[in-house]
Write a structure and sequence with these properties.
By secondary structure, the chain is mostly helical. The chain is built from 16 helices and no strands.
């Protein structure tokens, strides 16, 4: 947590920004930075905020849906359905921010986020709740793409890497706060965690007050050959394939935690909703701490060099969870896997934002959001059949083994991957 606090203070006071390129209040002001970070906290873990409510929801709809397997699947869709609509919405959001602007979309989707996310607070129909979750997915797509694109617009070089690391940290910190609060509220009533989404409305007011649209006219664009921002105007296909593919894989693995962990802990230690929420929050806390360190690590490491570290940490963590016989082992595995995930997202975001031409940045980052949430949506579809055969512990162990193999592959073939990506982008 000390890393996060020091990183935040540093970035709120100092930064490098291409001021000549934009007509805006100083992006180095603490109000602008804090607004972008708070908006980012609404994204990655937003769908999982109500995860501690899942066991109670399954029981609540027992009379309406008699088939236990169907009921379990539909209840888990409360977590994963938004991801499908983020997949649908992210490419559209990328086109919108490149054509019509960043701020209008961010403002509109923050408002929609509060409306759609809170719908489960007063709805008692599972289909109606799922409809609200679909709208939430569209809102998250807009918030994530517009906020990340604004950060890439405002900052360059080391400042961009540092701020995107802090952005991922705030995504994780939002998960810590929301999941802990969601677990406490779910213990009172499964409806209550849905009220957390109303937090987006005060953020919408901050966006209106402190975010100004960048001037993206061709005359004000930076030189395309400028330092670390891009190597060429061509679309870096190899980089995009690697980044999008690995992001999808990582999210299939990661979403075993918010979707399956409450049931796993219920079987293992009869965990209460508040305990499940705190366990998932622990993972996001370590993710947030690792994210904040990314800016410093990036100065000494290449994008590709991070990959064995990322997938190695995630794999070891999942292997520990899969072999757990007690609460402490589960928490240790969650902490280790969280650190890997925390490095993953800023590495992928910076890699893509540096690789693509400025006029395609919104669409490229929209593609990153698509791959991220496609993995989250696919996670239960891919893993649920295996869970019936292997059990919850077995699926965590299998996933951990796959991730370790991926890590070893990138360690062994690092030079080949570097050669594949270097014609497109400088990896330093």
């Amino acid at each position: 947590m000390n890393y996060m606090v020091s990183g935040l203070l540093k970035l709120l006071s100092v930064g490098t920004v291409r001021r000549e390129n934009y007509l805006m209040p100083n992006p180095n002001s603490w109000t602008t930075k804090l607004t972008l970070l708070l908006a980012s906290s609404l994204t990655v873990m937003s769908c999982a905020t109500v995860s501690p409510s899942l066991p109670a929801m399954k029981q609540q709809f027992e009379s309406a849906i008699a088939d236990p397997d169907l009921r379990t699947t539909l209840v888990k869709l409360v977590i994963t359905l938004p991801a499908l609509f983020i997949v649908i919405g992210s490419p559209i959001a990328g086109l919108v921010v490149d054509r019509f602007g960043r701020k209008p979309l961010l403002l509109l989707t923050c408002i929609l986020y509060g409306f759609a996310g809170s719908s489960g607070l007063y709805l008692d129909s599972l289909p109606a709740i799922l409809g609200g979750r679909a709208l939430l997915g569209l809102a998250v797509a807009g918030v994530m793409v517009s906020a990340t694109t604004l950060i890439a617009d405002y900052y360059s070089g080391p400042a961009r890497a540092a701020f995107m690391g802090l952005q991922s940290g705030f995504m994780g910190l939002g998960g810590v706060v929301f999941l802990t609060l969601g677990g406490a509220l779910a213990q009172q009533n499964w409806h209550y965690p849905f009220g957390i989404y109303l937090f987006a409305w005060p953020i919408a007011l901050l966006v209106f007050a402190f975010i100004l649209e960048p001037d993206r006219s061709s005359s004000s664009r930076p030189n395309v050959g400028a330092e670390t921002d891009m190597a060429s105007q061509s679309t870096p296909v190899s980089v995009m394939v690697i980044v999008y593919g690995l992001t999808t894989l990582s999210q299939i693995a990661f979403y075993l935690i918010p979707v399956q962990l409450p049931f796993f802990l219920d079987n293992l230690v009869k965990a209460l909703p508040s305990q499940s929420g705190m366990a998932i929050a622990l993972c996001t806390l370590f993710s947030a701490i690792a994210s904040v360190t990314y800016g410093k690590l990036k100065q000494r490491m290449e994008f590709v060099t991070f990959l064995p570290v990322i997938f190695g940490l995630m794999g070891i963590g999942y292997l520990l969870i899969g072999q757990s016989s007690n609460w402490a082992q589960v928490l240790t595995g969650l902490a280790i896997s969280g650190m890997g995930l925390g490095i993953l997202m800023p590495n992928m975001s910076v890699w893509i934002s540096v690789a693509v031409p400025d006029n395609l940045r919104g669409r490229a980052l929209g593609g990153l959001s698509t791959s991220m949430f496609l993995g989250q949506f696919l996670s239960p579809i891919v893993t649920q059949p295996l869970t019936k055969t292997l059990g919850l512990g077995g699926i965590y162990a299998l996933t951990g083994g796959v991730l370790v193999i991926v890590a070893l592959g990138f360690a062994v073939f690092k030079s080949q991957v570097l050669n594949l990506t270097r014609p497109m982008i400088s990896t330093k």
